[in-house]
Amino acid sequence: MRTVILLILGVHLAYGETHSLRYFYTAVSGDIDFPEFTAVGLVDEEQFMYFDSNTKKVEPKTEWIRQNEGADYWDRNTQKATGAHQTFRNNIQVAKERFNHSTGLHTLQLMYGCEWDDETGAKDAFNQYGYDGEDLINLNLKEKRYVSPVQEGFITQQNWNNNKGLIESMNNYLSIQCIEWLQKYLQYGKSSLEKTVSPQVSLLQKDSSSPVTCHATGFYPSGVTITWMKNGQDHHEDVDLGELLPNEDGTFQKTSTLRVTPDEWKNNEFSCVVEHQGETKTEDEIRTNNGDSVPIGIIIGVLAAIVQLIFFAVAGYVVYQKKKGEGLQV
């Protein structure tokens, strides 16, 4: 099973890098204080648009898209998102029936988009559905057919594979139009997407018997490596690497936790090494949190992660639906 808890991984605007344009649609069914439908667009790691079923309007999330696209663009995309909302509202009910789910919290998701290497010109694309964090159906672009790993998706797989026009339309969008929009967005946001911000690094421990957490935060772009050293040598045992998390200001944070006894820490020299954009930072002094206090950066990141677990997936791959009429019931 493939999972995507954090889908905004480390690609950024620099020579010879792979860039991505990704859209995430999420429908939620159940008793939860969250919009019934959300849509998010990302260029590389940066969110540039947002829509939900409460606001019913596509909104810009970066200055570079706000300054370069006018009212027609936002009206057109609001109409598309509104249509997707209606389709997903129907489709999640169909999915629940297929899986024999009548109650509880459930999610239906779509992830679609493309990648482009600005040095080699290599391209890739994706069109994937997920239900409750599990793969449901995806488009194999090389074979030009839909594939479902679960029995509940076989009906949709068969129906969509019989619709050659649908597959050709998808292929055309993903391999041509998506790349063109990605290149346009990269030019719009060049100065923003090229920025580099170094991480702040701290060693955190609740008490002397707790694990030691290396916390790197405030960095951009998202590509970062966190490792541990013990007495000057690489140390990989009893290490848990955390997920990449977004901060509210558009930067990122990540943690790595070392499970070590007080005696081990006292009798050896441990240090955390954080590498980002060719810069290396080393930290070996623990900051102890008394009681239940937690640094605000971690609090923000955890809240963001909770939102994304609901928003991008409770961990799953998702789906693209280019036409209003495309859905599980097709």
TrEMBL record:
Domain Ig-like: 199-289
Name recorded for this polypeptide: Ig-like domain-containing protein
GO biological process: immune response
Membrane-crossing residue ranges in chain numbering: 296-320
Domain of life: Eukaryota
Keyword Cell membrane part of the UniProt annotation: no
GO cellular component terms listed in the entry, alphabetical order: external side of plasma membrane; extracellular space
SMART domains attached to this UniProt entry: IGc1
Keyword Glycosyltransferase annotated: no
Alphabetical list of PANTHER family matching this protein: MHC CLASS I ANTIGEN TRANSCRIPT VARIANT 1-RELATED, MHC CLASS I-RELATED
Residues annotated as signal peptide: 1-16
Keywords, alphabetical: Glycoprotein, Immunoglobulin domain, Membrane, Signal, Transmembrane, Transmembrane helix
